[in-house]
Structure formats: C-alpha cells, structure tokens
Amino acid sequence: DNTRHGSLDSSDLSIHIGSTYGVPYPALRTETPFLYDNETYPLDRVLAETLEVEDLSQLHLQYPCSKDKARLMSPLQNRSKRRAFHRCFDS
C-alpha cells in the first residue's frame, strides 16, 4: 500500500484541475479587467503629471513612508491640479 509509505498517486488527490487551491486572491480571478486604449486615454501619463513624478511604477520606492504618500497624493487634493486627470478618466 503506497499510502502507508507516504507516497500518493494522482488518484489519491482530491484537488481537481480547476481548483483555486494555492492561488492567491481567487476572487480577483473572476473580475473583469479594466482595459482602455492608452493612446486615447493616457491615464498613466496624466496621473504621473498630476502627481509630478516620472514613473508611476517606482512610487513605492520613492515614497516608502506613509507621510511621504500623503505628500505624494497632495496634488489630488487640489481641484485645479486634478482636473486633467478627471477629464481623461471620465471621458
């Protein structure tokens, strides 16, 4: 008997091929992705300009502390500075 010796074959496993076992955040797998044409809607560029940063993908390195994040997001508190982002997002 293989189970006595600690080895199992595939028929002994109860996890099926479509299982989410071991998949982080399985509920997110069913969400519809938010897709947009970044030529028509350059949200990343407009947000970077609004926040006055070069590269959004590096924010976690440039602003690691919570007080830094508050400073980073402060332009979004200003209506006139965030207007371009709102126009792009809402169109």
Could you explain the architecture of this structure?
The chain has 91 residues and is mostly helical. 36% of the residues lie in helices and 0% in strands. The chain has 4 helices and no strands. It has helices at residues 43-51, 59-62, 66-73, 79-90. Helix 1 (43-51) runs antiparallel to helix 4 (79-90). The longest helix has 12 residues, at 79-90. It is extended, with a radius of gyration of 23 Å. The protein starts with 42 loop residues before the first helix and ends with a helix.
Keywords:
91 residues, 4 helices, mainly alpha
Rg, Å, rounded: 23 Å
Task: Name the overall outline.
Answer: extended
Helical percentage: 25-40%
Structural class call reads mainly alpha
Question: Topology of this protein?
Answer:
Blueprint: H1 43-51, H2 59-62, H3 66-73, H4 79-90
Helix pairs in contact: 1-4
Provide a concise account of the structure shown.
The chain has 91 residues and is an all-alpha fold. 36% of the residues lie in helices and 0% in strands.
